[in-house]
Amino acid sequence: GSNTCVVERRIALSGGANGYVATVSETDLAGCSPFPEAYSLDLELSAPIHAASVQVGATFPHPTYTPTSTTIDCAPFPGASDSHVTFTDETGAVESCAGVASSGSADGQVSNPDGDLSQLLLDWSDGTCDTNPLITLAELPTRYVLQYRLGALCQPSDRRARTLLLQLSRPIDASADFSHEVYHGN
Q1: 2 CA to centre of own chain
Q2: Closest CA to 160 of 151, 171, 170
Q3: Are 2 and 177 in contact (CB under 8 A)?
Q4: pLDDT at 79 (0 to 100)
Q5: Is 131 left (phi over 0), alpha (psi -120 to 50) or beta?
Q6: Average pLDDT over residues 28-43
Q7: How many Cα neighbours within 13 Å face the side chain of 138?
Q8: Sign of the C-alpha dihedral computed for residues 175, 146, 107 and 39 taken in this order
Q9: Distance CA 5, CA 181 (A)
């Protein structure tokens, strides 16, 4: 399944001896992704102040999230030696990964092959322009997050099914809650 991310954001502007401070804070109300976000802050003021006198600070909802990040170059997909996946493991559970023949499962499907909790199969679709996808697996207290960074969005006719096999050092049940974030771009 997947969750909807719910965040409460507050922005405070306060004056001080050395200028003004704009502070963005957020409270995680429904288990959001640990991946950083960018913010843009436009202020409409009733009196002019010099922009150089404003300092911006931010607090984030995951102060206890300290990932152990390991990058793994996965074995290539069968028949596609020019395409490989770079996998970032932030769970500490992934030992290796390899592209395998597509299982034909639905896009975004996560499964344990033959019920084996020491393996995960990740299914997604990409296109011929997605030659080297970047995939990240993170673990939150209530769910897992899979982030797919793909190339430019290909034509629908160029889509192809992909399957990645992960070998795990500890069991992960695919029936757990997984959220999927897919990004396209160069």
Answers
A1: 13
A2: 151
A3: yes
A4: 72
A5: alpha
A6: 53
A7: 20
A8: positive
A9: 11
